[in-house]
Write a structure and sequence with these properties.
single chain; alpha+beta; Alpha-Beta Plaits; three-stranded antiparallel sheet; about 30% strand; globular
């Protein structure tokens, strides 16, 4: 797999404002490899449980996840929403990145670097007696 070293260095330089330079490069490489697994927050709000259940009926290759920067969010200035889209069917806000992850990712997005979010798993479910949860891989 080929990595864009220029983007990795840009991300590391952005992260270096919040952590040591060596830790910033480790984090940038982890993001480049798509090894960050993020548990989406807020999946119990509104109709998100029904939306997650609905997603389980579709194959993974027709589901896309988008990170949406919400700089005007009144609760978190670093807020990043997660939107799920079923190709040809529409999209729905599924929740948010955790505040800790958003604090790291928001400055990267603010600098115009695009991030990808891919489905790692939909966990739980009513038949298992648990609420649905959503885990994503976030990568540069």
């Amino acid at each position: 797999m080929r990595y864009d070293l220029k983007i990795i260095c840009r991300v590391a330089n952005i992260l270096a404002h919040r952590m040591s330079r060596s830790q910033a490069f480790k984090s940038a490489w982890t993001m480049a490899k798509g090894q960050d697994i993020e548990k989406v927050k807020g999946v119990l709000f509104g109709l998100r449980q029904a939306a997650l259940q609905h997603l389980t009926h579709y194959p993974v290759d027709v589901i896309r996840f988008h990170l949406i920067r919400e700089s005007g969010n009144r609760y978190d200035e670093n807020a990043i929403a997660i939107s799920a889209e079923v190709i040809g069917k529409g999209s729905y806000k599924m929740g948010y990145l955790s505040a800790a992850t958003a604090a790291i990712v928001a400055p990267i997005m603010d600098k115009g670097i695009s991030l990808r979010a891919g489905l790692k798993s939909i966990v739980g479910g009513f038949c298992e007696g648990f609420s649905y949860g959503l885990r994503l891989q976030v990568a540069i």
